[in-house]
Design goal:
By secondary structure, the chain is α+β, with helices and mostly antiparallel strands. It has two domains: 115 residues, Alpha-Beta Plaits (2-Layer Sandwich); 123 residues, 2-Layer Sandwich (Alpha-Beta Plaits). Helix content is 25%, strand content 36%. It has a five-stranded antiparallel sheet. Strands 14-17-11-18 form a four-stranded antiparallel sheet. Strands 2-7-6 form a three-stranded antiparallel sheet, with no helix packed on it. Strand 9 and strand 10 form a beta hairpin. The longest helix has 18 residues. The model has no long low-confidence stretch (mean pLDDT 92).
Length: 255
């Protein structure tokens, strides 16, 4: 399930730091039911040592200008939020619709629109082309010779990219407690670059931490329920920080 949220700044211009992911994440948490927000932030869905929030949000869209580390949206902006938990979307929608104005990055905004997006067609098992609406990130943590830990981010053209993303979906399934065998169901699954350029690599900072991710088009092969989970919760890691949201671009039709 997915929401579209459109905001219109009261003074006409929305000015945010260029690295605004944490600002937008804070906006989402601040506009959820307090108990739900606290549970998501502190606990979420657990599997082994990992905890999954199971929501993902896009970049902000709208006419914009970038200058001196700031981004200015000239006619308002909108973003998308998806979740495997309908309560998250219902809570956000209800809170936004009850408020005459909200704050995003210390800017007062009117809530111009809160709308449920129609569900796209998904042909599970057949190739599906998806577009990244926020950078997809896949990485591993390595031990450097000096004993310090180092994060290595995969490229979509490395074999480990697809394996890392598919493994992430398996862990989400286990955290949700599905009555299924993701190892068996996803043994033929893959997530490959379809149309990805070097310019699609994005290097961002989230609360001081460098995160590398990729935009572009990708070909997904996996059963329908797992494709829906990827759509609802994002591909790869750091989804609740604004990474890995996808949109269905086509269903097995070459472009």
């Amino acid at each position: 399930m997915r929401l579209k949220v459109a905001l219109l700044p009261e003074d006409g211009i929305l000015c945010l730091p260029l690295q605004y992911n944490s600002t937008l994440q804070g906006f989402i948490y601040a506009n959820l039911d307090r108990a739900l927000s606290g549970w998501l932030h502190e606990e979420g869905h657990a599997y082994e040592k990992r905890r999954f929030k199971l929501f993902v949000f896009s970049r902000l869209f709208g006419k914009r200008e970038i200058s001196k580390g700031k981004v200015r949206f000239l006619r308002g902006a909108h973003f998308y939020l998806s979740s495997a938990d309908p309560d998250v979307l219902c809570s956000l929608g209800e809170h936004l619709l009850r408020k005459p104005s909200v704050e995003l990055g210390r800017r007062s905004c009117l809530v111009e629109e809160v709308a449920v997006e129609p569900e796209p067609e998904m042909n599970g098992g057949k190739p599906v082309i998806v577009r990244a609406l926020s950078p997809i990130t896949a990485y591993t943590t390595l031990a450097a010779p000096d004993g310090k830990k180092k994060t290595y981010y995969y490229s979509p053209y490395e074999e480990e990219w697809s394996k890392s993303l598919v493994d992430n979906i398996k862990r989400k399934v286990l955290a949700l407690g599905w009555d299924t065998d993701p190892e068996e169901d996803l043994k033929e699954a893959s997530i490959r670059p379809y149309r990805v350029r070097s310019a699609d690599q994005k290097v961002l900072r989230f609360k001081g931490t460098v995160v590398k991710g990729w935009m572009g088009l990708y070909e997904l092969r996996m059963p329908r329920p797992y494709l829906q989970l990827a759509y609802d919760t994002g591909l790869g890691s750091k989804n609740s920080q604004g990474f890995g949201m996808i949109a269905i671009a086509s269903n097995g039709r070459k472009r």
